[in-house]
Amino acid sequence: MDNTVSADRLGKMLGITDRQVRNLVKDGVFERTGRGQYDIDSCVFAYIRYLRETLKGDSESLTDQRTRLVRAQADKAELDLEVARGNNLPLDLCGNFMHSILNAVRSRLLAMASTLKTDIPGLDNETVIAIDNHIRDVLSEVSKTGIPANLSRRLAQYVGDIETAAPDDGEPVG
Q1: Residue 170: CB partners within 8 Å, gap ≥ 6?
Q2: pTM value surpassing 0.85
Q3: Whole-number Å distance between alpha carbons of 160 and 174
Q4: pLDDT tens string 42-77
Q5: How far is the C-alpha of 162 from the C-alpha of 92, rounded, in Å?
């Protein structure tokens, strides 16, 4: 009795496509017995072994995955509630707010030398220019310092927490 079949027939027997059969040959799971022919018994045993090994690597059960998803959705809902109550603000809103404050401070500092010249008419031009240069040097130095390391780590952690939260697709889990 001939115990060989084509890739198409083997795929139908295993519930996979003939393309998947060829991929499993390429991966070394199946061996051909001849041109486009496969031994049924050895391929079935090899496929079962392949599935067992594949499933061993996935230790997280579906229940664990669902539990993790529900927790992430609950965390997201809690954050949304905090934002709605005004207890927590979105990161981009806080960033825009701080940016506008810093721009206003920068503008006022840059205008300080000319304001002093107007408020104190006795100031000579060299003093006004020195004050203006000093203000510009300080602003330049401050702009190069960047975000402090501890704040940078906390921001990265916060952004990471947001990115790992499950997307809200409006569908209940279960």
Answers
A1: none
A2: no
A3: 26
A4: 999 999 998 888 777 656 667 777 888 899 989 888
A5: 12
Q: Which residues contact 173 (CB under 8 A, 6 or more apart)?
A: 66, 69, 70, 73
Q: What are the pLDDT digits (tens) for 68-114?
A: 889 998 988 888 888 788 777 777 777 888 888 988 998 999 898 88
Count of CB atoms within 10 A of residue 52's CB? Answer: 9
DSSP element (H, E) containing 31: none
Distance, in Å, from the CA atom of 174 to the CA atom of 46, rounded to the nearest integer, reads 34
> CA angle at residue 54 from 50 to 59, to 5 degrees?
150
CB atoms < 10 A from the CB of 104, how many? 10
- Other beta carbons less than 10 A from residue 21's beta carbon: 25
* Ranges assigned E (strand) in the chain: 4-6, 32-34, 37-39
Strands 32-34 and 4-6 turn out to be unpaired
Question: Token pair for residue 89?
Answer: 């603000």
Burial class of residue 166 (count of CB atoms within 10 Å of its CB; 0-12, 13-18, 19+): middle
Measured distance CA(14)–CA(86) in Å, rounded: 56
The DSSP code for 32 is E
**3-class secondary-structure state, position 153:** helix
